[in-house]
Amino acid sequence: MEMNRIRTTVAIAAAIVAVVACAADKKEPFGVLSMDEVEKMLGQPNVLVVDANNDDVYRKSHLPGAVWYKAAPLAQLLPPDKARTLVFYCASPS
Q1: Which residues form the domain of 59?
Q2: In a domain, 37, yes or no
Q3: Residue 71 falls inside a structural domain
Q4: Is 13 exposed, middle or buried (0-12, 13-18, 19+ CB in 10 A)?
Q5: Which pTM was predicted?
Q6: Could you give the C-alpha distances from 8 to 2, 21, 57, in angstroms and in order?
Q7: Per-residue model confidence as pLDDT tens digits over 5-47
Q8: Looking at the domain assignment, is residue 94 inside a domain?
Q9: How far apart are CA 51 and CA 36, in angstroms?
Q10: Residue 65 CB partners (closer than 8 Å, separation 6+)
Q11: Cβ–Cβ < 8 Å for 93, 32
């Protein structure tokens, strides 16, 4: 049931996801992920999920484990481990 709620949250949010992967073997460190790919990444220790929605949307329907991008200055939210994967999502591409 929890996975259905996660899928619904992601679908409703029409998640636009950008991934920053600091792997040296990749040409482009940014990419777009599917909802299924993000779902598999949730809860993994090497992944930080950042919700870029307004505070009302974040409070009502953020993904499990996601941090709100305005909870602190972004530099404080980002992990010191530069190899960690960052996933950003929001409800609108604009």
Answers
A1: 2-89
A2: yes
A3: yes
A4: buried
A5: 0.67
A6: 10, 26, 14
A7: 555 455 444 333 333 333 344 567 788 899 899 999 999 999 9
A8: no
A9: 17
A10: 42, 43, 49
A11: no
Q: What percentage of residues in the chain have a pLDDT greater than 70?
A: 68
Q: What is the mean pLDDT of residues 77-84?
A: 90
Residue type for position 93: P
Number of domains in the chain: 1
Q: Cα(31)–Cα(18) distance, rounded to whole angstroms?
A: 5
Hey, what are 51's tokens?
């919700």
Q: What is the CA radius of gyration of the chain?
A: 13
Is residue 40 included in any domain, yes or no?
yes
- Tokens 């991008």 label which residue? 69
